[in-house]
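Annex B.
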Amino acid sequence: MKKSAFLATALFAAAVSAQAGELFVSINSGSVMTQGAGLAIATNAVEQKANVRILLCDAGGDIAVAGKEMPTLKPKNVTPQQILQGLLKNGAKVEVCALYLPNSGRKATDLITGVTPANPADVAAYLLKPEVQTLAF
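DsrE/DsrF-like family protein: predicted structure tokens.
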């Protein structure tokens, strides 16, 4: 009986985690609307209990620069950075690509709290997992 209960619990946990899924969102665009679209999808995925990992590179990396002024997006009147901060607060992993800091003249200390430089080997290993869905903006 204990084995059956354990097995049922394990199968249920596996089903729940498979349902939630893994989402990798890459944002490279400098377009505020494009950035907002990617972050809105990531936000909805987090709300649906998915594990979300975001990689910001090129102009997309600017979203993570502390104090960066950006236009607000309707209908919620928030900036991409405010959306990103909400994602961080709700458990998303957010990184800037390994090329962003050395090629933008910025340092890790210039980034908002919670955003870290990515390790390319870690990103590659994550992307090779069969359960990871990817989106690029």
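The longest helix spans residues 2-20. The chain has five helices and five strands. Further annotation is deferred to the next reporting cycle.
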